[in-house]
Amino acid sequence: MEKAATRPPSGAQWTIAADGHEAVIVEVGGGLRSYRHDGVDYVDGYGPDEICPGGAGQVLAPWPNRIRDGQYTFGERSLQLTLTEPDRNNAIHGLVNWVPWELVEQSADAVTVGYDLPPTPGYPWPLRLRSRFSVSADGLRIAYEATNLGGEAAPFGYSMHPYLQLPGVPVEELSLRVPGRIRTLLDSRLLPVGATAVAGTEYDFTEPRPIGDAVLDLAFGDLLRDADGGSSVTLAAPDGSAAVHVWADREFGWWQVFTGDTLTGERHRRSVAVEPMTCPADAFRSGKDVITLEPGTTWRGAWGVRPGV
User: Fold this and answer.
1) Which terminus of the chain is more solvent-facing, meaning fewer CB atoms within 10 Å of its CB: N or C?
2) Residues 6+ positions from 217 with CB-CB distance below 8 Å
3) pLDDT, average across residues 212-225
4) Is the separation of the CB atoms in 220 and 254 below 8 Å?
């Protein structure tokens, strides 16, 4: 009997490269498996023989983070999602992070992948999702779009879940800047119960400072915007010799920062997840910054990773 070729757990692998930048995008989840510049890995990804750990590089749509009890209402409908975080009784990270995405277009320095999300009992709206990954002298850029293929308005939110690192610099020593003036207050199920200003507290990273022993798994909002309406999070070496910036355009009003404390084994507190989010956790219930996709309309947003001091 002829032995079948071994297929990577993350499916097909698409590599793009230009100007010393290289990224690998995968079929499963349409995610980002690795990103490096001049041989330095700025994304703490995973190997081709591994199942994606800790949500590394996954697309979180049509909602990011958690929905309490998986229950929400939209319009006249009361809906129930599958509880994908059963220990906390939550629906987490959307519906597309483990599905196979298709190759739409590919060149040496860019790849577009897509997935048509079918309607389901918990989310009865068909969406067409597209992610275009590209690399250039400016770093890695991800342009994302979601189109409502149905005849009714649909709720929508988006994020991605990359872990960032500066090789050789422990999380405790990294200098962190987050442009958020408020943070969410969480209950024991990591769901928001309110928000509070960060000024004068241990969670104020609006000016760069070391992470130290801070344990972070928080969403930051009320962003300090750049001139173009976007914002960015920066991780830097303590001596200023190296840095990595995660930027997002004006479509993103929240940043989730996670220091990896609940990860096990060698990934425990090894890198920092920096997630640009269009809405905070539980947004389908609260309505906070939920995007309403009207029939036939397309939402577009972009974010990226840029190494540099």
Assistant:
1) N
2) 186, 190, 256, 257, 258, 259, 261, 262
3) 96
4) yes
d(CA 21, CA 253): 28
The closest of 181, 163, 142, 164 to 236, measured between CA atoms, is 164
Give the whole-angstrom CA distance, residue 102 versus residue 70.
28
Q: Is pTM beyond 0.85 here?
A: yes
Structure tokens belonging to residue 243: 């840095």
- Cα distance between residue 110 and residue 74, in whole Å: 36
Beta strands 77-80; 90-92: pairing state: unpaired
Cα radius of gyration rounded to whole Å, the chain: 19
Place of tokens 């830097």: 236
Residue 40, phi-psi category: left (phi > 0), alpha (psi -120 to 50), beta (remainder): beta
Domains along the chain? 13-307 (2.70.98.10)
CB 298 within 8 A of CB 158: no
Question: What does pLDDT average to over the chain?
Answer: 96
Distance CA 133, CA 25 (A): 8
Helix (H, G, I), strand (E, B) or coil at 171: helix
CA distance 271 to 253: 23
How confident is the model over 103-158, as pLDDT tens digits?
A: 999 999 999 999 999 999 999 999 999 999 999 999 999 999 999 999 999 999 99
6 pLDDT more than 90 = no
